[in-house]
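FW: tagging you since you asked about this chain on Friday. Here's the raw sequence from the shared folder, copied in full. Didn't touch anything.
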Amino acid sequence: MHLDRLITILEIIAVAGRPVSATEIQKATGLPKPTCYRLVQTLQDQGLVEAPSGDGRVVIGERLIRIALLGKSDVDVRRAAAPILKAAAVRFNETVFLARFRNSLVEIIHVETPDDPARAYVHPGLGVRPMHACSCSKAIAAFAEPEFQDSIIKGSLKAYTEHTKITEADLRADFLRIVERGFADCDQEIDLGIASVAAPVSIGNIGAIFSVGAVGPIRRFGPENRVRIGRDLVDLASRVSGTIQLCNVAEV
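HL: got it, structure written out here
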């Protein structure tokens, strides 16, 4: 019974889609006021709901969003993000992709390509990417805990091309540069003639769980264009984050 009441309160808050007061929750549930207030406080104590404005009104908390996100399949995430990624691929006229961080690895889980039939484009493939050499991986690693960065730097770093950064000094400098700019780039570090740019997708206070990027031939992805696309990707990442979080809350 206690669990049923907690779930009912969570459903009311999730469906509302806005901060909800304890009084509104009490009226919707019909619970006695002391009981309702106690249950809401229990949910707050566990981080399942939060009162961001400090006025007592609550929304779904970061912990619950994290639980929902960790259980969300790639299919669900792709379905939520695909329209935004496709629009970006058409606008950039370049391939756009979404990567996911889990089990200490980053893997590309979805790719959208331009609609222009006369356009030659690069497909990055799907699956795990090296943490030290791919823009989608570095965009996440740069914002991770120092201990995780240390594990990358102290690991076995393969030089895929002469442009691959494999020294501690180069990688640490690259991570700092990524944090300063808000996006990462890969200048022929995995394949000669291919460059990419990616921005981290942060989910609330959870951190960078995804990244969104664009890839193309180096003749179109020179330094200036990478900066331009990188800045656009920062905004795109924010929109993807919002879409994923809304999808999570709706399904909680």
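FW: The first strand starts at residue 49 and ends at 50.
HL: agreed, and The chain has a mean pLDDT of 87.
FW: great, closing this out.
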